[in-house]
Amino acid sequence: MTVRSVCPGPAALDPVATSRAADEGETDVNDLWDVGRLDLDAYLARIGGIGARAPSRAALDELHTAHVRTFTFDNIDVLLDQHAGVDLDAVQAKFVGRGRGGYCFEHSTLFAAVLERLGYPVQRRLGRVAGPSSTGARTHCVVVATVDDAALLADPGFGMSLLRPTPLVDGATDDQDGWAFRVAAVPHGAGRAWELHRWHDGAWELMHAHDELPVQPVDLVCGHHYTSTYPASQFRHALMVTRHGKGRHTTLTHGTVTVRRPGQPTEHREISIDELRDLLQEMEVALTDAEQARLIEKVTALRALHR
Fold first, then answer.
1. What H or E segment, with its residue span, contains residue 272?
2. CA nearest 125: which of 216, 38, 199, 42?
3. What pTM does this model have?
């Protein structure tokens, strides 16, 4: 199934039509997310040569950490108006084939497919940045995996990502190599939402909250279409590149660099265009010469607007 970069109508993912097609041998209703198209061996090689292992908490932790340390969170293709979409074929061509990164719809699409291929029960869920009562759209995507009957929140595609999945248990706190996180269940409509907080400057800071509603591929397509094309989308007005390294987390924008280390003061400073080029290379952002030239041109315009 190829998902286009616009929001298809209801008939595009009609479950009756899908079931009929399955009976006629045209598709597999158990592979709505096209996970059978994943090149699992190539993915595992890209994240450091990790071998395929039976589902376990230790194996899941290793995969998640390797993923967030291999792939940047970034909006570069949105800024360059060249985003190929969030279906699995496009994402694995970009991440696995080119070694690039992206934002949550891409990270979660790829990571969920990997987990499913490895035998983990998986749910894709959508949420809102800044909490369930936020007026923002449901434009953050996370993955919930189950190991030994325990639900674990995987969040590989947030700017300040979890290093490892954290238990989806109300009130649970999790220290991840000095980065502290907390999960909270809160009432939301007729159900509940799950908030993720991180410890920041002596207090718990709300990062995002997801609900438990079922998610279909079209939901990610529409969310991506909104965040990548809506004129007021933050992804169209600022450069965002982050990388989780060992003992440090780096955030690069069109005008600043921020380095965070557990238990240490945050370093934040303005940068020049030349420093931006150097930092993109240091953060191992795989750009062609043409892409870098276009990005520098875009960033120069953004810097002028934000003065």
1. none
2. 216
3. 0.90
